[in-house]
Design goal:
Neuraminidase; disordered C terminus; four-stranded antiparallel β-sheet; disordered N terminus; 342 residues; five-stranded mixed β-sheet
Length: 342
């Protein structure tokens, strides 16, 4: 453990990686991503079938937003909850572009259109006038076959597709969720091109200066794949949540860092593959994806969970929500008390 940083395990509900269930053997959830509405009542998600849906948290009902041949990913709400920005691509080898969907009339407008770059992870700025996103500048063959995008940087653009600005010049190996702040700064996580350097959490100032905040610069990176990924900032503008395998290699717990505190703590984890944590408006609860099942390729199948900062966790929806959204039905059962320690 790095001196000066204390990791407090409040609760962990860990499930070891086991054999895939027969039901989910052929299911792929690599496209599944979630975002919580500003009022905390609705979730937008990209499903396994490549379309976008809304999920009413209290009603446990789904509403289809798109039905296209392309793959739509990384949706997120506008600050007023009336629009959704997302990324979409025509096929696995095509570049991804940014779009905006108006929830009032379901009209969709393209924001980026360059086929030479690939754009993902869009999110509105707090004033709703611009969109920050991750842009890859290189499409290269992989060693074991196929193609991949890399040399990622943080960019922003007006919602009308004008005023494109490149905010970083780092050419990252991978970028994770980018969160714009009201003061003009950004929080994001990234892997550098050196494969021995794990994902870290950064802030980006209005003058485009990037500063690493988790872990502290110079920390020992041994046996860690992601000190921080999938960051999100709480309603107080200071508390952050993220995923990290710091306590156990390749075991991605949900972490929390409060303000300028040097310490961070981990809240209840439901699996070894947790992703996309997001705060409810009260700032005391987090919704996230937990890979509680696995397919035949040992890749995670996600269910939807909620956890309080004190470690009390409960399941909000089974993995069928993301596998078969139009046919999903909320299971009628009483959730057990899942507070525990690893």
């Amino acid at each position: 453990m790095t001196p000066g940083i204390h990791l407090l395990m409040i609760a962990s509900l860990a499930l070891e990686l086991g054999c895939p269930s027969v039901e989910n053997a052929g299911v792929e959830h690599n496209n599944v991503c979630i975002d919580l509405s500003p009022d905390g009542k609705t979730l937008v998600f990209s499903s396994a079938d490549g379309d976008l849906y809304l999920f009413g948290i209290s009603s446990s009902t789904t509403t289809r937003l798109t039905e296209t041949d392309r793959t739509e990913s990384y949706p997120s709400f506008s600050p007023d909850g009336k629009q959704i920005t997302f990324a979409a691509k025509d096929n696995d080898s095509a570049s991804s572009k940014i779009f905006v969907l108006n929830l009032g009339d379901h009209s969709i407008n393209a924001v980026t259109e360059d086929n030479k770059q690939s754009d993902i992870l869009p999110r509105f700025t707090p004033d709703g006038k611009r969109i920050v996103f991750a842009r890859a500048n290189r499409h290269r063959p992989k060693r074991l076959g196929g193609w991949t995008w890399d040399m990622w940087d943080v960019c922003s653009i007006g919602t009308d597709g004008t005023g494109l600005t490149r905010l970083t010049e780092e050419s990252y190996y991978q970028l994770y969720r980018i969160v714009p702040m009201a003061d003009g700064t950004f929080v994001y996580a990234a892997d550098t091109m050196g494969l021995n350097n794990p994902a870290a959490l950064y802030t980006l100032s209005p003058n485009n200066k990037s500063t690493q905040i988790i872990p502290e610069p110079g920390a020992n990176n041994a046996n860690v794949n992601a000190w921080a990924s999938d960051p999100m900032v709480g309603p107080d503008g200071e508390t952050m949540t993220f995923c990290s395998d710091r306590t156990k290699p390749f075991w991605y717990d949900v972490g929390v860092k409060k303000g300028d505190a040097k310490s961070e703590f981990l809240v209840g984890s439901k699996s070894r593959y947790n992703r996309y944590p997001d705060f409810f408006p009260d700032g005391e609860r987090i919704v996230f994806l937990a890979g509680t099942d696995f397919n035949a390729g040992s890749r995670p199948i996600y269910s939807l969970w909620e956890v309080s900062l004190s470690g009390q966790a409960k399941e909000l929806a089974t993995s069928d929500l993301f596998t078969n959204p139009t046919n999903w039905l909320a299971p009628k059962r009483t959730e057990p008390d899942m507070h525990g320690t690893r």
